[in-house]
């Protein structure tokens, strides 16, 4: 089974999600095409660091963990586990 902890670290600390801005003016129809506006791409970790509702102790723990992560090693670990799963099929 794919280690969800590795995947969660990669998503939380490295991969920024594409977030739609939910406003009336964010969507415009031009003919048959709809243009949408999206928020700036930042990771969930960066959103937490920018938040005023998160205690400083939690922020320091998260940033300490962030400094130890290597996105290339995380992706390589995920790829090797996927290859292992696919070899069983």
Helicity range? 40-55%
Unreliable runs: none
Strand content: 5-15%
Q: Report the major sheet.
A: 2 strands, antiparallel
User: How many beta-strand segments?
Assistant: 2
Whole-number tally of structural domains = 1
SSE pattern, N- to C-terminal: HEEHHH
What is the average of the pLDDT values?
82
DSSP helix count?
4
Could you give the order of strands across the largest sheet?
A: 1-2
User: What is the overall shape?
Assistant: flat
Tell me the radius of gyration: 18 Å
- Given helix and strand content, the structural type is mainly alpha
Q: How far apart lie the N and C ends? A: 13 Å
Q: Could you characterize the architecture of this molecule?
A:
The protein has 89 residues and is mostly helical. It has one domain. Helices cover 54% and strands 9% of the residues. Strands 1-2 form a two-stranded antiparallel ribbon. A hairpin with a 2-residue loop joins strand 1 and strand 2. Helix 1 runs antiparallel to helix 4. The longest helix is centred in the last third of the chain and has 18 residues. The radius of gyration is 18 Å and the shape is flat.
């Amino acid at each position: 089974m794919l280690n969800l902890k590795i995947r969660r670290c990669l998503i939380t600390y490295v991969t920024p999600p594409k977030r739609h801005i939910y406003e009336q003016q964010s969507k415009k129809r031009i003919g048959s095409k709809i243009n949408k506006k999206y928020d700036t791409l930042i990771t969930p970790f960066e959103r937490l660091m920018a938040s005023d509702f998160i205690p400083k102790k939690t922020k320091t723990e998260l940033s300490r963990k962030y400094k130890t992560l290597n996105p290339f090693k995380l992706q390589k670990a995920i790829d090797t586990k996927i290859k292992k799963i696919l070899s069983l099929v």
